[in-house]
Design brief:
Chain lengths: 478, 339
């Protein structure tokens, strides 16, 4: 059930109405049932996976609290991690792992027939696995108490707005909100509606529309040469940002309708001036998860420089791997790791600028660098990346022809182009303003005519630019 | 909560207005402006508009001409002593003419005569093709389908570029011509030249609905007989490349099978007209002057030169004469192939 589907348009009002009608003590049951129904709409049989992961982690946390020794706690944690990550490995990485082993052996002229499983990747498995692991690890470290009420815990893990593509919530934030009694808050609900509208704007008016162009180039890359790949990469940067942050906004807005505040997942990431800053603004729930559960346990930055760089590199490689079972994602993650290491090494040259022409130059440079890395992320295979890199410089010695070929390949009509440009201006204006203010709050305080004009304008851009069809969200494949 | 729900209602209202208003105002296919069709560069849904127009003016015309855009060049106002309306539209097929005729007769439209133009498109275009496009025929546009098809702002805004690009090519009296006559191509159109010949592509459909098309023709004939409507069938004089492609796709079999159902006037053949560049402006459409010739012939206002008829052009075909027609056409095709 996609957020941008008629089914969700029916599902959400029903859940919203029931949530505020039924007494608080039964709300966990409603959230649990609704969330499982939401999940089962993707593939009903995989509901046993999320239930199994939930049950194992629930029991593990209870056992951890009763554990009499550190050794016992470590064993419980290890078993839980193996079970949860084992399920993830089986569905997501099994084929990739054996193919990679087979390829390595083939380098030594040893032929291995790789074992291939024909299984569908369960939607959201990477997200809820990390959420359960973070819970168990936090209980292990004593940061949170184990939840004894299975219903509350199950509702926390499966909470439908963030179930399939995050934000990956921390126990200390979401679980207490699931348990606490809430009264309907008009301001919070209307904020949630406006945030959902903004999320739909990013998804429908930008991500899907630009995705159509990007997919046409990347999926048929063998038909193109020249600067069109640069354009595709720049547009993919916009597409993936709007797709993913749009989903997050819809999820956060949806949760607010039920009086629940999820964590912010994106903070104007394309206005970063360093790679480090980018990762503090992009997919914050994931980057903080890796910081807290991989980077810091490895030693973080409280060690020698070489060790710190090693920790950084490993963390980003694992992050890349989390995104997908393909060498392209590993390369993408490794590239970000290397860029961060370079930034750390030359830290004195990356002083924080907050305004002025230098800041703008660094913002643009960072966007170009991130989009360069996105080419690895978007490519379907390593050979595709090689093709793209070999083909991109074709014709660059004739800059005007190089540029005109790009425009011809995209075949954008004037009015269509103007509307796309307007959506981009709105997007970047919002994100730039967000560096200083909460834009939704800011507009809410304006006169009614101004507010309604702004809302109508955004709604118009959604309805008038909307991609014809229902496109999935990019991060569902993770 | 009440305030919030009121806001939701307002939100839905704004969304509704933003959806409906541009679709109705811009209306590229003129479905909302069926009584005031505007030329905007986008081909209107002519089937829908014309049927609605005739339903609204049931006594205005005595006769109707059904056909694809090929028949759309026929200037029906030149038919003597007859007020005729050209109901043709792009890729029209007998299945849809039948539905239209049923609608018109069931709603009391006073028709005395119908002209039905057919050719290979009749059996190489499946009706379902039109459901994937914006040109649903009148009978397929129930309320839900109508809203789903035409209340789509993105579709409307996609058409703006076409509307903008063609703003300088508007014809005078478009609306008047549309409602008074229904044809779309005026005299004086630029015809083919030698340079165009290598690029001529045959224009026939990709489906094969041979039996279905024959059944539709049979039902049209029966419907007309039941309602006392004179039905005049004729085949279009297809341009040479399209004609040859049609022959390779069972066109002679089609002509034979139609003759078993109804008499018709045949204009499909290979002669100086159908191979001549001066009589066509693309591989699909003949010029209005040829349309005049067709109408004068089928109405008995003119008798074509015997040599012309001997080529199959203007040949009155019955089930007794169809074999002779096919012989003529086959010998032409063979002679042309040997050249």
């Amino acid at each position: 059930m996609l957020f941008n589907s008629i089914q969700f348009g029916i599902f959400l009002p029903i859940v919203f109405a029931l949530y505020w009608i039924i007494p608080h003590k039964y709300r966990w049951a409603l959230l649990f049932a609704a969330s499982y129904y939401f999940y089962m709409s993707w593939n009903a049989k995989y509901v046993f996976l999320i239930f199994g992961t939930t049950f194992v982690s629930y029991l593990a946390a209870l056992r951890l609290e009763k554990a009499s020794s550190d050794k016992e706690k470590k064993v419980i944690l290890a078993i839980t991690a193996i079970v949860c990550l084992g399920v993830l490995f089986f569905f997501k990485y099994f084929n990739f792992f054996f193919e990679s082993v087979s390829q390595i052996f083939s380098l030594f002229a040893i032929k291995l027939n790789p074992i291939t499983l024909n299984v569908l990747l369960p939607v959201g498995i990477s997200f809820y696995t990390f959420q359960t692991l973070s819970y168990v690890i936090d209980v292990y470290h004593g940061k949170v108490k184990a939840e004894h009420h299975f219903g509350y815990y199950a509702a926390f893990i499966s909470f439908f707005p963030q179930l399939v593509a995050g934000p990956i919530e921390r126990t200390s934030n979401l679980l207490p909100q699931i348990k606490s009694e809430k009264k309907f808050d008009y301001e919070q609900a209307t904020y949630g509606m406006k945030l959902m509208a903004w999320g739909f704007f990013k998804k429908l008016a930008i991500a899907d529309v630009f995705g159509f162009i990007v997919d046409g180039i990347f999926n048929y890359h063998y038909l193109y040469t020249g600067g069109v790949f640069i354009l595709a990469s720049l547009l993919f940067g916009i597409q993936i940002y709007c797709d993913f942050s749009g989903y997050s906004d819809i999820a956060i807005g949806c949760a607010k309708l039920m009086g629940i505040n999820l964590m912010t997942n994106f903070k104007s990431p394309y206005f970063s001036t360093t790679v480090g800053e980018f990762w503090r603004r992009w997919h914050i729930s994931l980057s903080t998860w890796f910081r807290d559960y991989v980077y810091i346990p490895l030693g973080g930055n409280r060690c020698s420089k070489p060790r710190r760089y090693f920790n950084l590199f490993v963390t980003f490689v694992v992050s890349g791997l989390w995104h997908g079972a393909n060498v392209t994602f590993i390369l993408w993650g490794a590239l970000h790791g290397v860029l961060q290491i370079i930034e750390n090494f030359f830290a004195k040259f990356f002083k924080r600028e907050s305004k002025g022409i230098v800041w703008w130059i660094r913002v643009i440079w960072m966007y170009l660098l991130v989009c360069f890395a996105w080419m690895f992320f978007r490519a379907n295979s390593f050979s595709e990346i090689v093709w793209i890199f070999m083909a991109t410089p074709d014709g660059i010695s004739h800059p005007l022809t190089y540029l005109s070929t790009v425009i011809q390949n995209v075949d954008l009509k004037p009015i269509d182009g103007i509307i796309k440009l307007i959506t981009l201006i709105v997007l970047f204006a919002y994100d730039y303003a967000s560096l200083k203010v909460d834009v939704i709050e800011y507009i809410s305080k304006k006169k009614r005519i101004v507010r309604y004009l702004a809302y109508t304008f955004v709604l118009a851009l959604i309805l008038w630019q909307r991609f014809d069809g229902v496109a999935s969200f990019v991060y569902f494949q993770f | 909560m009440k305030k919030f729900l009121a806001k939701i209602v307002l939100f839905i209202g704004i969304c509704g207005l933003l959806t409906v208003l541009p679709c109705v105002i811009i209306d590229p296919y003129n479905v909302f402006h069926w009584s005031n069709v505007r030329e905007n560069g986008v081909e209107p849904n002519k089937n829908y508009i014309k049927v609605k127009y005739i339903l609204a003016n049931p006594d205005k015309f005595e006769s109707l001409l059904f056909g694809s855009s090929r028949a759309g060049v026929i200037h029906v106002e030149n038919i003597e002593d007859e007020k005729c309306y050209n109901m043709s539209y792009s890729e029209g097929i007998p299945h849809e003419y039948l539905d239209n005729l049923k609608t018109l007769t069931e709603n009391g439209v006073n028709i005395k005569k119908v002209y039905i133009s057919i050719d290979s498109l009749a059996y190489t275009l499946a009706p379902e093709q039109h459901y994937y496009e914006m040109r649903y025929p009148y009978e397929k546009l129930d309320l839900v389908t109508f809203c789903k098809t035409y209340l789509r702002p993105n579709m409307v805004f996609d058409s703006l570029d076409t509307i903008f690009e063609t703003r300088n090519t508007r014809t005078e009296n478009y609306s008047n011509t549309f409602y008074e006559y229904g044809w779309w191509c005026d005299y004086g159109v630029e015809t083919l030249t030698e340079e165009d010949v290598p690029g001529l592509i045959p224009y026939i459909g990709y489906d094969y609905c041979f039996e279905e098309a024959l059944e539709d023709i049979r039902q049209i004939k029966e419907l007309c007989e039941e309602n006392g409507i004179e039905a005049v069938f004729f085949t279009n004089p297809m341009q040479e490349v399209t004609y040859k492609e049609s022959v390779d796709n069972d066109y002679y079999e089609f002509l034979e099978a139609v003759a078993e159902i109804t008499d018709y006037w045949n204009f499909s053949c290979l002669n100086d007209i159908t191979t001549g560049l001066d009589y066509y402006f693309d591989s699909s459409h003949y010029i209005p002057e040829i349309g005049d010739t067709i109408m004068e012939t089928v109405n008995g206002k003119t008798h074509l030169n015997e040599d012309l008829v001997a080529t199959g052009f203007g040949y009155y075909t019955t089930k007794d004469t169809v074999k002779n027609l096919i012989k003529i056409l086959e010998s032409q095709y063979t002679a042309d192939t040997e050249e």
